[in-house]
Every structure is written in structure tokens, then in C-alpha cells.
């Protein structure tokens, strides 16, 4: 399967990706995760991206397009892909189309998660992540078995630097200004499946699973 998962900050892209990958043996390509890794490793890309990410703004197109182009040309993407958080602007969508055509893996479906603002605010402020393995939790809706500790690897959990209500507003603004045009572009191509992601995690996943099975 060649799938994109899209939706505003905190809509559940990472959470649903984890679940989809339990059933599909394809690589998960998250530009947010790749950029956070670059920041952690203090690479040139990481240093450039950090300022934008800390402010909740989009990282410049050329940086992320280069990142995704390199990743999609790796051999494991011949199995397909689940791309999370890319594209976020029309130039990114056009670049992705070129790359996926070049590797002969055109996009088959765009899963679009929709959630209202209050729920997003609750989700990002309550989110905790494992910096070691990337597992995602929520203090209320998806807590770890032991408070503050990752179920998967036992490492301590942390809050993301951009998980405040102020930065959520900036990220949502970027989403509606730059990313919505990508969704409109994919809608015209008949690729988008809208999923009501305000429901509990298992129900959202069930709807995604039904869409993928069609
Ligand atoms: P990125 O890491 O992609 O962040 P985002 O889009 O802001 O999305 P999030 O990771 O915040 O949320 P999510 O939708 O994955 O939700 P999650 O599953 O964690 O990008 C970060 C930054 O990197 C951007 O701001 C930008 O600067 C830069 N960047 C990345 N890609 C870029 C690109 N292509 N171009 C330019 N810049 C780029 O869930 C959230 C919480 O809710 C969790 O706690 C979870 O447990 C909980 N939850 C999930 N689903 C449910 C549910 N159904 N019910 C209750 N709780 C739920
Ligand atoms: Zn972990």
C-alpha cells in the first residue's frame, strides 16, 4: 500500500500510523520524526529546522523535500509506504508526485483525520512521547501502565517542546493556510478518505481499517 496520512497537529497521525503498521509491513515515514532526530543529532539540517519547529512554523520546502526524496529512494519503499506529515504545502505535493512516479509507487490513498480545536488542544497538552522508541501516549486517553514510563522500552516519557496551546494555534494556522490546498488537490484526484478522528482511538482505527480494506 502507498498511503499518506494527513490531519492537523494532534489529530492522531502518529497514533494511527503505529496501529496501521501492526497490519501492514511497510515503512513509516514521518517528516516530524525525521526532523526531531536531526535536531537530536545536531546535524546541519537539524540546526536549520529547529527554529521553525520550535515556533510551530513549517520548515522550508527544499529541506523537507530533500529529506523525503532521499528516504523514498531507499529499497524498503518498494514494499510501499505510509507517509505521515508530508506534504504540507502544494510545492511539497507536486514534488511528492514526481518522486513517487519516479519510483513507480504512486499514492493510492490519502487518509484525512478531522478533529475540532478543543479536542486538539486537550490532545497536544496531554501528549507524552518516548524519546527512545517514539511510542506515543496521552495522560488521559492513552496512559502508559506505569506513570511516566514507556510500556515498550521502559524509558522515561517526555513532553514535546512544541506541545503548548499557543504553538498549536500557529501549527493549525499553517495547516489551514498551506496544507489544506494539498488536501483539495488530492480530493480532486479522488484519493481522499475523510475519517472522523474525534472518536475514541479504537473507533478511529476501525474506520481506517475499513477504508484500507476496500
Ligand atoms: P509533526 O511531528 O508532523 O507534528 P504535527 O503535524 O504537529 O502532528 P503531531 O505529531 O503533533 O500530532 P499527530 O497528528 O501525530 O497526533 P498524535 O498521534 O501524536 O511535525 C512537527 C513539526 O515539524 C511541524 O510543526 C513543522 O515545523 C515540522 N514539519 C514536519 N513535517 C513537515 C513538512 N512536511 N513540511 C514542513 N515542516 C514540517 O496524537 C496526539 C495525542 O492525542 C497523543 O497524546 C495521543 O495519545 C492522543 N490521541 C490520538 N488519537 C486519539 C483519539 N482518537 N482519542 C483520544 N486521544 C487521542
Ligand atoms: Zn519507548
TrEMBL record:
* Keyword annotations: ATP-binding, Cytoplasm, Kinase, Metal-binding, Nucleotide biosynthesis, Nucleotide-binding, Transferase, Zinc
Associated pathway: Purine metabolism; AMP biosynthesis via salvage pathway; AMP from ADP: step 1/1
Reaction equations catalysed: AMP + ATP = 2 ADP
GO annotations of cellular component type: cytoplasm
Where does the record place the region LID? Answer: 126-163
Q: What is its subcellular localisation?
A: Cytoplasm
Assign the protein's first listed, main location to one coarse class: cytoplasm
Q: Cite the binding residues for Zn(2+).
A: 130, 133, 150, 153
A family per Pfam = ADK_lid
Query: Could you tell me the EC number(s) of this protein?
Result: 2.7.4.3
Q: Name one GO molecular function term.
A: AMP kinase activity
Query: What is the main EC category here?
Result: transferase
Please quote what the entry notes about the protein's domains. Consists of three domains, a large central CORE domain and two small peripheral domains, NMPbind and LID, which undergo movements during catalysis. The LID domain closes over the site of phosphoryl transfer upon ATP binding. Assembling and dissambling the active center during each catalytic cycle provides an effective means to prevent ATP hydrolysis. Some bacteria have evolved a zinc-coordinating structure that stabilizes the LID domain.
Summarizing the function annotation, the protein's role is: Catalyzes the reversible transfer of the terminal phosphate group between ATP and AMP. Plays an important role in cellular energy homeostasis and in adenine nucleotide metabolism.
Q: What family does the database annotate?
A: Belongs to the adenylate kinase family.
Q: How does it assemble?
A: Monomer.
Q: Which NCBIfam families match?
A: adk (TIGR01351), PRK00279.1-2 (NF001380), PRK00279.1-3 (NF001381)
| The protein, known as | Adenylate kinase
Q: Which organism is it from?
A: Anaerorhabdus furcosa
**Which gene underlies this protein?**
adk
Amino acid at each position: 500500500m502507498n498511503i499518506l496520512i494527513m490531519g492537523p497537529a494532534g489529530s492522531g497521525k502518529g497514533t494511527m500510523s503505529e496501529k496501521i503498521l501492526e497490519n501492514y509491513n511497510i515503512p513509516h515515514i514521518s517528516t516530524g520524526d525525521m526532523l526531531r532526530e536531526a535536531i537530536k543529532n545536531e546535524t546541519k539540517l537539524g540546526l536549520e529546522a529547529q527554529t521553525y519547529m520550535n515556533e510551530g512554523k513549517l520548515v522550508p520546502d527544499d529541506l523537507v523535500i530533500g529529506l523525503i526524496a532521499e528516504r523514498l529512494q531507499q529499497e524498503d519503499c518498494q514494499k510501499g509506504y505510509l507517509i505521515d506529515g508530508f506534504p504540507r504545502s502544494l510545492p511539497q505535493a507536486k514534488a511528492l508526485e514526481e518522486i513517487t512516479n519516479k519510483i513507480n509507487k504512486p499514492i493510492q490513498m490519502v487518509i484525512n483525520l478531522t478533529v475540532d480545536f478543543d479536542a486538539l488542544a486537550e490532545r497536544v497538552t496531554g501528549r507524552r512521547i518516548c524519546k527512545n522508541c517514539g511510542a506515543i501516549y496521552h495522560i488521559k486517553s492513552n496512559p502508559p501502565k506505569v506513570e511516566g514510563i514507556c510500556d515498550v522500552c521502559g524509558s522515561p516519557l517526555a513532553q514535546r517542546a512544541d506541545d503548548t496551546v499557543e504553538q498549536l494555534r500557529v501549527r493549525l494556522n499553517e495547516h489551514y493556510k498551506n496544507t489544506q490546498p494539498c488536501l483539495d488537490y488530492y480530493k480532486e484526484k479522488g484519493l481522499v478518505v475523510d475519517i472522523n478522528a474525534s472518536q475514541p482511538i479504537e473507533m478511529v482505527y476501525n474506520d481506517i481499517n475499513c477504508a484500507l480494506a476496500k
